Amino acid sequence: MKNYIQEGRMITLAAPAGGVTSGDGVMVGALFGVASKIAGDPVAWDDTAKEVSVPGTDRYPIGIAIEAAGNGATIVRVRLDGIATAAAA
After folding, report:
1. By CB neighbour count within 10 A (0-12 exposed, 13-18 middle, 19+ buried), where does 26 fall?
2. End-to-end CA distance of the chain
Protein backbone atom coordinates (compact mmCIF):
# COMPACT_ATOMS: atom_id res chain seq x y z
CA MET A 1 0.00 0.00 0.00
CA LYS A 2 2.32 2.72 -1.18
CA ASN A 3 -0.32 5.43 -0.62
CA TYR A 4 -1.01 4.48 3.02
CA ILE A 5 -0.49 7.31 5.53
CA GLN A 6 0.09 6.27 9.12
CA GLU A 7 -2.41 7.64 11.65
CA GLY A 8 0.50 8.95 13.71
CA ARG A 9 -0.76 7.95 17.15
CA MET A 10 2.27 5.72 17.62
CA ILE A 11 5.45 5.34 15.63
CA THR A 12 7.54 2.26 16.31
CA LEU A 13 11.28 2.94 16.37
CA ALA A 14 14.31 1.11 17.70
CA ALA A 15 15.30 2.36 21.15
CA PRO A 16 18.44 4.48 21.22
CA ALA A 17 21.64 3.08 22.75
CA GLY A 18 21.20 2.68 26.49
CA GLY A 19 17.43 2.17 26.15
CA VAL A 20 14.57 4.24 27.51
CA THR A 21 11.93 3.95 30.21
CA SER A 22 8.20 4.23 29.56
CA GLY A 23 7.22 7.89 29.90
CA ASP A 24 10.69 9.25 29.10
CA GLY A 25 11.01 11.97 26.48
CA VAL A 26 13.43 10.81 23.79
CA MET A 27 15.02 12.11 20.59
CA VAL A 28 15.51 9.59 17.77
CA GLY A 29 17.21 11.37 14.91
CA ALA A 30 15.08 14.49 14.35
CA LEU A 31 11.95 12.97 15.94
CA PHE A 32 10.90 13.68 19.52
CA GLY A 33 8.50 11.38 21.28
CA VAL A 34 7.50 9.85 24.58
CA ALA A 35 8.57 6.25 25.10
CA SER A 36 5.69 3.84 25.64
CA LYS A 37 5.34 0.49 27.34
CA ILE A 38 6.13 -1.97 24.58
CA ALA A 39 4.12 -5.10 23.87
CA GLY A 40 5.96 -8.13 25.15
CA ASP A 41 7.28 -6.44 28.28
CA PRO A 42 6.49 -8.01 31.66
CA VAL A 43 3.89 -6.28 33.82
CA ALA A 44 3.07 -6.47 37.50
CA TRP A 45 0.20 -5.67 39.86
CA ASP A 46 0.79 -2.80 42.29
CA ASP A 47 -1.59 -3.73 45.11
CA THR A 48 -1.07 -0.42 46.91
CA ALA A 49 -2.05 1.73 43.90
CA LYS A 50 -4.44 -0.97 42.60
CA GLU A 51 -3.04 -0.78 39.06
CA VAL A 52 -0.95 -2.65 36.51
CA SER A 53 2.58 -1.28 36.40
CA VAL A 54 6.15 -2.14 35.51
CA PRO A 55 7.76 -4.84 37.67
CA GLY A 56 9.34 -3.62 40.89
CA THR A 57 9.65 -4.07 44.64
CA ASP A 58 6.40 -5.18 46.31
CA ARG A 59 4.68 -5.67 42.93
CA TYR A 60 3.22 -9.00 41.81
CA PRO A 61 4.32 -10.30 38.37
CA ILE A 62 1.10 -11.09 36.48
CA GLY A 63 1.89 -11.42 32.76
CA ILE A 64 3.04 -9.79 29.54
CA ALA A 65 1.72 -6.63 27.83
CA ILE A 66 0.16 -7.62 24.50
CA GLU A 67 -0.29 -4.06 23.20
CA ALA A 68 1.76 -0.92 23.71
CA ALA A 69 0.51 1.39 26.46
CA GLY A 70 2.10 4.75 27.16
CA ASN A 71 2.87 6.27 30.52
CA GLY A 72 -0.41 7.24 32.22
CA ALA A 73 -2.49 4.86 30.07
CA THR A 74 -5.77 3.86 31.71
CA ILE A 75 -5.97 0.51 29.87
CA VAL A 76 -3.22 -2.04 29.49
CA ARG A 77 -4.00 -5.29 27.67
CA VAL A 78 -2.20 -8.17 29.37
CA ARG A 79 -1.80 -11.87 28.73
CA LEU A 80 -2.06 -13.25 32.26
CA ASP A 81 0.46 -15.92 33.24
CA GLY A 82 -2.16 -17.94 35.10
CA ILE A 83 0.26 -19.00 37.84
CA ALA A 84 0.48 -18.20 41.54
CA THR A 85 2.58 -15.13 42.23
CA ALA A 86 4.39 -13.47 45.10
CA ALA A 87 5.50 -9.87 45.48
CA ALA A 88 8.99 -9.10 44.24
CA ALA A 89 11.52 -8.32 46.95
Report:
1. middle
2. 49
